[in-house]
Design a protein that fits this description.
It is built from four helices and 28 strands. With about 550 residues, the protein is α+β, with helices and mostly antiparallel strands. The strands form seven sheets. It has a four-stranded antiparallel sheet, with no helix packed on it. Strands 2-3-4-5 form a four-stranded antiparallel sheet, with no helix packed on it. A four-stranded antiparallel sheet has the order 6-7-8-9, with no helix packed on it. A hairpin with a 4-residue loop joins β27 and β28. About 30% of the residues are buried.
């Protein structure tokens, strides 16, 4: 395997490196050993030769006495010289051998130390090798992870490119759809205007024809009857054909019980858990004996105006009830619903009389112009006038903005409407013409309007946390009502005049009720029920002037004050 081959190569390289350091010393040591051995052999040979020479000399002396004496001395001198030379050489060699032993010992110690260091280095080398192996494995894993990340990045980039192209196409499609939508809205508005004009023309033609037919029938009957009975017969037929149309001003003129001075309440009288969902609106009957409440639970509940006892529950709506009120004379109850319709019940028996359908948006507000006409305002940017005797729309007025509330003058002809475009608009519902628009009256959308009891001023409430009183004739702002504790938290928060027109009451987002003096614009009183903990949607005065009721949005509560 590759790792074994790598280890073998590394060990061989380490061995070669360590041997090279001592190669010359070992070679020199081996050479000295050989020379010492050679000298020892030569020394033995010389000693042997010397012994032989000595014996031969002795025998020669015995045989030749004088003749060879000189030769013997010369040989002896030579041998002694050679012997001394050999001994000197032996001493030198022994000294070199001693030095060699000393060097060998030193070298051995160095070898041992080097071996120890080599072992340590080998262990370190093995550890480093392991670390290198681990690092290589980590590098391989990281390389693999990096490759996967690169693949994922490439895939993500391709998906991003595809999504960007898709977003671009969607943006282009949205632009096209917005353009088409704008064109469709324009066409729809034109169509609605045409239909409104057509319906208004048809209604005018119908009314004209009815008048002509009635006139013809009356002329025919008068020609066939005795003149003495004409007056009596005519008055009798008129009274039996249709009930007389009564406006609010006519009813108020006959209602002597409404001539009162209002007293500002100071404490809660009744706390009613009125509905299963948020309470959105309240309305007293003109006599003050009945209180109606509407809720997001799709129902209208009828309560005793003084005791707070529940009388009946009116159902029929498919969505939230946003407005409830009584007709002049208190014969009928009207409710505006978020299911694009209005409903009219008989106040005595609770039977549903009419379901007024025709709006294409949420109906936030409605009211009686007189006993025979109802006006409704919707988020489809239109007002509609309904004939109560027939139950269908007799006029459509395009107002070009979401309608949050409306109020009707006592004569039943002029309507003021509150809109999300921060304006209050005035209409003549007989002709459908706009009388005036109060532009820039508020800085945010207007949530409610209410006409003063004397019919001379309009009270408007806005999300900019101010209330303004405007002269109906000159459209001049007469006073601005504000307070640091007052905050308008709902698009359907409605403020109301007191029956004598002296005070104005409005509910704040913190559950408190602020009462202002309508003439001086000063805060008279701030009421805390201890029950309302969320935004108050409406405050309404009892026409008797001695009390009023307030409704809380998310608390599902109605509080009656005294």
């Amino acid at each position: 395997m590759m790792w074994k081959q790598d280890i073998y190569v590394q060990v061989k390289q380490r061995n070669d490196k360590q041997v090279d350091q001592w190669r010359d010393i070992i070679k020199h040591y081996n050479t000295l050993e050989k020379e010492i051995l050679t000298l020892r052999l030569e020394n033995a040979s010389l000693r042997k030769s010397s012994a032989t020479t000595s014996s031969s000399s002795s025998s020669h002396l015995l045989s030749s006495s004088v003749g060879n004496q000189q030769q013997k001395e010369q040989d002896t001198i030579l041998l002694e010289g050679k012997k001394r030379e050999l001994e000197e050489k032996i001493r030198n060699l022994e000294k070199e051998l001693t030095d060699s032993y000393r060097h060998t010992s030193t070298n051995a110690q160095l070898i041992i130390k080097t071996k120890h260091d080599t072992d340590i280095l080998s262990v370190e080398n093995l550890n480093l090798q392991k670390k290198i192996t681990q690092q290589e494995e980590t590098i391989q894993e990281l390389t693999s992870t990096l490759s996967e990340r690169d693949d994922l990045l490439s895939l993500t980039q391709s998906e991003l490119s595809a999504l960007q192209e898709k977003v671009t196409r969607i943006d282009q499609r949205n632009l096209k759809l917005e353009s088409e939508n704008t064109a469709l809205v324009d066409r729809w508005m034109k169509k609605m205007a045409q239909e409104a004009d057509t319906m208004n023309t048809a209604n005018a033609f119908y009314e004209k024809m009815v008048e002509e037919v009635n006139r013809s029938e009356s002329s025919l009957k008068l020609s066939m009857r005795d003149p003495a009975t004409i007056a009596t017969s005519t008055s009798t037929s008129t009274s039996t054909a249709h009930p007389p149309v009564v406006t609010k001003s006519q009813y108020l003129a006959t209602a002597s019980f409404l001539d009162c001075t209002c007293i500002i309440p100071s404490k809660p009288k009744r706390k009613l858990v009125a509905h299963a969902a948020e309470v959105t609106c309240l309305g007293f009957s003109l006599s003050g004996s009945i209180l109606a409440s509407g809720s997001m639970d799709k129902s209208v509940k009828i309560w005793e105006g003084m005791t707070g006892a529940l009388k009946t529950t009116l159902n029929g709506g498919a969505q939230s009830v946003m407005c409830v009120c009584f007709s002049p004379g208190d014969e009928h109850i009207l409710a505006a619903n978020n299911d694009n319709s209005c409903r009219v019940w008989n106040a005595d028996n609770g039977r549903l009389r009419h379901t007024l359908t025709g709006h294409v948006g949420k109906v936030y507000t409605a009211g009686f112009a007189d006993t025979n006409r109802v006006v409704s305002g919707s988020h489809d940017r239109s007002l509609k006038v309904w004939d109560m005797s027939k139950g269908y729309c007799i006029r459509t007025i395009l107002c070009n903005s979401l309608c949050n509330d409306l109020t009707i003058a006592a004569d039943g002809h002029m309507v003021a409407s509150a809109h999300a475009d921060q304006t209050v608009k005035y209409w003549d519902i007989r002709s459908g013409d706009m009388i005036h628009t109060d532009l820039g009256l508020h800085d945010q959308q207007v949530t409610s309007v209410h006409i003063s009891p004397d019919g001379h001023a309009i009270l408007s409430n806005s999300k900019d946390n101010t209330l303004k009183i405007t002269d109906i004739r000159t459209h001049e702002v007469l006073s601005i009502l504000r307070d640091e504790n007052y905050r308008n938290g709902l698009n359907w928060n409605r403020a109301r005049y007191s029956p004598d027109g002296r005070y104005v009451a409005a509910g704040s987002v913190d559950g408190s009720i602020i009462v202002w003096n309508a003439m001086t614009s000063k805060v008279i009183k701030t009421l805390h029920s201890g029950t309302h903990s969320s935004a108050i949607s409406m405050c309404v005065w009892n026409p008797m002037g001695s009390a009023f009721a307030s409704s809380s949005d998310k608390d599902k509560m109605v509080v009656m004050w005294e």
